[in-house]
Amino acid sequence: MFLEADLTRIKERGSDPTVVEQQIAYFVDGFPFLQLSKAATVGDGIISLTDEQIKEVVSEFDKSAAEGEIALLKFVPASGAATRMFKSLFGFLQEGKKDKSVDEFFARLREFAFYEDLKTAMAADGQNIETADENTIASYYLTNKGLGYGELPKGLLKFHNYPERSRTPLEEHLVEGARYANAGGQVKIHFTVSPEHRDKFEKLVVEALPGYQSKFGVKYFVSFSEQKSSTDTIAVNLDNTPFREKDNSILFRPAGHGALLENLAQLDADVIFIKNIDNVVPDNIKEETITYKKALAGIVLKYQKRIFDYLNQLTDSTDETLLEELDTFFKEELCVVPPASFKTWGAAEKKAYFLKKLDRPLRACGMVKNQGEPGGGPFWAENADGSSSLQIVESAQVDVDDAEQNSIFKNSTHFNPVDLVCAVKNNLGELYDLKQFRDPLTGFITGKSKDGKELKAQELPGLWNGAMADWNTLFVEVPLITFNPVKTVNDLLREQHQ
């Protein structure tokens, strides 16, 4: 299947021919659908915290963080391009197409945080933003003739206006980090970025950091990484043979956010906050986001302590009472139902099962009430070992032609806004090998094209989907105000971003 030159290319990318062969096998065989048991709902898989419970877990978290008892880190995937934010504007600039969103963009241009930058860029070429035609303005906005926003990642775009300076999402994450990822005055934030934009991110951090360190009285430690080429997946033709470029080399493509598991696995922290780059709001409505991030972290620490206590007890005992207690703990609190044959197992077999289930990474995932947003939701799903547990499931993982499965998926009450807090160390303080807890059968196959030829591409199990399928998982209801992503440029005109 592979030429000698192909094998050389695969090894140069840091991959392994057997891994690539497995990827081709997935194209041939496809990925199996997940079997949903039911939607997770409040009281049945989703925790709804009372005001008193929130105060309690936030207070415990604040105490641990202030005393430097735990190492905190904020992880922000920020490599995605902002191109899709400007789909309508590109249609206008390139093809003269106009719709309501384009009209609104120009009518409310002054309300955007980037307005002054755009005005200055145009003035440098003798263009007056007040009298220039819309085509000229769009050109200066989207292309490298001016701001070049159409070619930048979201993290570097001006989102919000403030009296002292307008802020990019990167800066909003710096501010958030100081509020909830602050361990004894130290704030560690890690951004995954694309190689071609890394220098711009680093430049912005150097420029912005002194002001925010002074404002919040903290010391920032900001780091970056890039998606590894070794995680790229091979592309194939429609007959599942390797897709070849004009020079006959095989084509590899980035494998989606699941590839970032490699980046996450290299970070050393007790508690890691994960949030998308574009889900940020101005300071005037940040408070609930801060509170619930701390609450999620407090929940993680509370359950981690209980899990570690159980691990220590179980290591020294096979007491029947303890095994029954663990069965209840998993079913009612960690929402893990054992295989049907569990009741026939002996004490040693049950002990081995519980030791394996306890000794796993832990995550708390914020869930907002479903507002019809595309993306994953919280479900109970069956696992390969016969157990059932909580999973974040995307529509592509569900057999929608099966009436029962489709009904379960459509009737979910909540949505995953990518709001996670993770504990990635075991009871000995050692980092887990996160790849050991990924379900490789939860990848995705999509149709793409290159140079006018159709091809099939493959994404690795999603970072918060199959990549974390074998983690201990807690779903926690969070308010809708904590979810304000920017999918199109006009989203910045919504009240929450003004």
Question: What does the model show?
Answer:
There is one protein chain. The chain is an alpha/beta fold and 498 residues long. The protein folds into two domains: 4-70 and 232-265 and 274-484, no CATH class; 95-152, no CATH class. The chain is 35% helix and 18% strand. The chain contains 14 helices and 18 strands. It has helices at residues 4-12, 17-29, 51-66, 87-95, 100-107, 115-123, 134-142, 169-180, 198-216, 261-265, 287-315, 320-334, 347-358, 403-410, and strands spanning 36-39, 41-42, 45-47, 72-77, 182-183, 186-193, 219-226, 233-234, 252-253, 271-275, 362-369, 377-382, 388-393, 414-415, 419-423, 444-450, 453-459, 472-477. Strands 2, 3, 4, 5, 6, 7, 10, 11, 14, 15 and 18 form an eleven-stranded mixed sheet that branches. Strand 12 and strand 13 form a beta hairpin. Helix 8 (169-180) packs across helix 9 (198-216).
What does this entry show, briefly?
With 498 residues, the chain is of the alpha/beta class. The chain is built from 14 helices and 18 strands.
Secondary-structure topology with pairs:
Elements: H1 4-12, H2 17-29, E1 36-39, E2 41-42, E3 45-47, H3 51-66, E4 72-77, H4 87-95, H5 100-107, H6 115-123, H7 134-142, H8 169-180, E5 182-183, E6 186-193, H9 198-216, E7 219-226, E8 233-234, E9 252-253, H10 261-265, E10 271-275, H11 287-315, H12 320-334, H13 347-358, E11 362-369, E12 377-382, E13 388-393, H14 403-410, E14 414-415, E15 419-423, E16 444-450, E17 453-459, E18 472-477
Parallel strand pairs: 2-3, 3-18, 4-6, 4-10, 6-7, 11-18
Antiparallel strand pairs: 1-12, 5-6, 8-9, 10-15, 11-14, 11-15, 12-13, 16-17
Helix pairs in contact: 3-11, 4-7, 8-9, 11-13, 12-13
